[in-house]
Design a protein that fits this description.
alpha/beta; eleven-stranded mixed β-sheet
């Protein structure tokens, strides 16, 4: 790989940071569970204190107006998941300190194939109130027993004195909680001290991140670096760095691991990495949303169209798990009405700048590949009716931009679902997340076939009537690709993050949500109290609701609920 060497000042700063961390490893080894929990809680307190500055910095680099409801995205995917993760991870440390397992108190059931299924959401009365109708299970691989799950939960915190050397985290540039959560997971799950290299897109968050991570920086176990690709290359190849974790695309991963150009391609083909040290990753892919045909009302069609539009347009479309292809039945009588509502939802979503580098080029690439694609208001692209026999790059190229395609497959609910599962597994690139949407009657009619379909899907997170992004926001759920990928066929990555219960070797997360929001769900006999979720791009009070939600996560209390509920309902 041909890379320009960093400036002398940069190499000196990197060397000093890595040397500091090499000394800090002994400090971390000497930190018992009580001290580690105290440091973690200090990070939580700093996150709460600087949450407003965090969101202002995020909206600034994403060029959002100060009064935009879309600022809610920055509250809900920035400080909020860090605060919930701190709380959940602190509880796991507390359990281990008392001689218990982090999974004690979490219900255990069974999933298809004899899998152990750990129910991680809801957990506690506040979850049941704030996320009413939502649930999440972690499915372990077949053959793993409940006793093994309990005995192994805790990972590196079961042996805190056995540290894992110096690790590098190459931070994401899109969702601002990712760098912080990845640092915490490296430290607490794997006992590695961490050099965090920020994505240049997020350099405006350096001051906030320095304040949030100050307890760990002061302890000598975290350092934060900035710079371009030259800094990143020097850092990951540093002889005292033993592990690299990155978030990005498969192409970026391969450039880092194997190098670029013909030489990099040759190394990949030969299985001889340029970067000869362990690498874990959370990468993107092409996420499908499978819409199972059913008898929907017009309100259902409109709401689920907004749901799918959110899956694509949240954060401007710059999410690793953004839906890129909607899979519908060509035999569904309501198909055309649904697609009309989807087009309207894409058009009506708030306009926002294309802040992520290369977005316009990727949109142009999609338009070039599909001359019949429709340009929708706000720079969005809708690619209609892909040819199932030759769908083109939409199933294999992650556009990482506001581009959404439609793939039609034949059949009523059961045969359609079977074919959609096969197509998702065999023809789509990546395994990070897949969404299923089905009305309650269809779910009931499918019966066990639905869970069997979920078991056949080879994805790290599967959402049923809930965007897989809910899995990202669930601190106790693992987040990552389906297991089994390798450096030379990395797909959506290797390993997991978040995972505040510190489960050893989870297979997947399954999240479920209500098909209809309150109060409409109640009119259909479904006991659901959750209104339209605040992460919907059409939510009118998302900024206020997100701020209140983050405040609640910092200090859960009954007195905060009335204002939070009122704001959510107004949205």
């Amino acid at each position: 790989m041909t890379t320009t060497a960093p400036a002398t000042d940069d190499t000196w700063a990197i060397d000093r940071a890595v040397d500091d961390l090499a000394r800090g490893e002994a400090v971390w080894a000497s930190c018992g569970l009580d001290r580690r929990r105290a440091l973690l809680e200090q990070v939580g307190a700093a996150t709460a204190e600087h949450a407003g500055a965090w969101v202002r910095a995020a909206t600034a680099y994403k060029r959002l107006p100060d009064d935009s409801p879309l600022a809610g995205e920055e509250w809900i995917t920035g400080p909020y998941p860090v605060l919930t993760s701190v709380g959940a991870l602190a509880a796991s440390i507390g359990a281990l300190a008392e001689g218990r397992s982090p999974v004690d108190g979490f219900p255990v059931g069974r999933a298809p194939g004899g899998r152990v299924a750990l129910s991680v959401l809801p957990h506690g009365v506040f979850d049941r109130l704030l996320l009413n109708g939502f649930s999440a299970e972690v499915w372990m691989p077949p053959g793993v027993t409940q006793e093994t799950v309990r005995a192994r939960a805790g990972l590196g915190l079961r042996r805190p004195a056995e540290t894992g050397g110096v690790g590098v985290v190459l931070g994401a540039g899109n969702i601002t909680s990712i760098p912080i959560l990845d640092v915490l997971y490296e430290l607490y799950a794997h006992n590695r001290v961490v050099a965090l290299k920020l994505n240049p897109v997020t350099d405006g968050l350096l001051d906030v991140f320095s304040r949030v991570l100050a307890p760990l920086v002061d302890a000598g176990v975290v350092r934060i670096l900035t710079g371009g690709a030259d800094v990143g290359a020097y850092l990951v190849h540093h002889p005292r760095v033993g592990h690299v974790h990155m978030t990005g695309s498969a192409a970026t991963h391969d450039a880092i691991v194997f190098g670029t150009g013909p030489e990099g391609a040759a190394r990949k083909a030969a299985g001889t990495p340029l970067l000869e040290k362990p690498v874990t990753s959370e990468l993107g892919g092409v996420s499908p949303t499978i819409v199972v045909p059913g008898d929907w009302t017009d309100a259902d069609l409109r709401y689920q169209a907004e749901h799918v539009a959110t899956q694509r347009l949240h954060n401007g479309g710059y999410n690793c798990v953004a839906s890129q292809v909607v899979v519908v039945s060509s035999d569904w009588p309501l198909k055309d009405r649904f697609l009309a509502h989807l087009r309207a939802a894409l058009s009506a979503a708030p306009a926002r700048p294309a802040y992520y580098p290369g977005s316009d080029d990727r949109v142009a690439q999609a338009l070039g590949a599909y001359p019949g694609a429709e340009s929708v208001d706000g720079g969005r692209v809708l690619i209609g009716n892909l040819d199932p026999a030759a769908p083109g790059p939409a199933l294999t190229t992650e556009y990482f931009a506001p581009v959404l395609a439609v793939l039609e497959l034949p059949g009523a609910a059961r045969p359609f679902l079977d074919e959609a599962v096969r197509t998702a597994n065999e023809e789509f690139a990546g395994t990070l997340g897949v969404n299923l949407i089905a009305d309650p009657r269809t779910v009931a009619a499918l019966g066990p076939a639905l869970d069997q379909a979920i078991a056949r899907l080879r994805y790290g997170t599967i959402g049923v009537n809930a965007w897989t992004g809910v899995g990202y926001l669930t601190a106790t759920a693992p987040w990552g690709a389906f297991p089994g990928h390798t450096l030379d066929d990395v797909q959506s990555g290797i390993g997991v993050v978040h995972n505040a219960l510190l489960l050893d070797g989870p297979e997947r997360t399954v999240v479920r949500g209500p098909f209809r929001p309150a109060p409409r769900a109640l009119l259909h006999g479904q006991p659901v109290m959750s209104p339209k979720p605040p992460w919907f791009v059409s939510h009118r009070t998302a900024a206020t609701t997100g701020r209140l939600l983050a405040g609640f996560a910092a200090a859960p209390r009954w007195s905060a609920l009335p204002a939070l509920f009122a704001s959510a309902l107004r949205g």
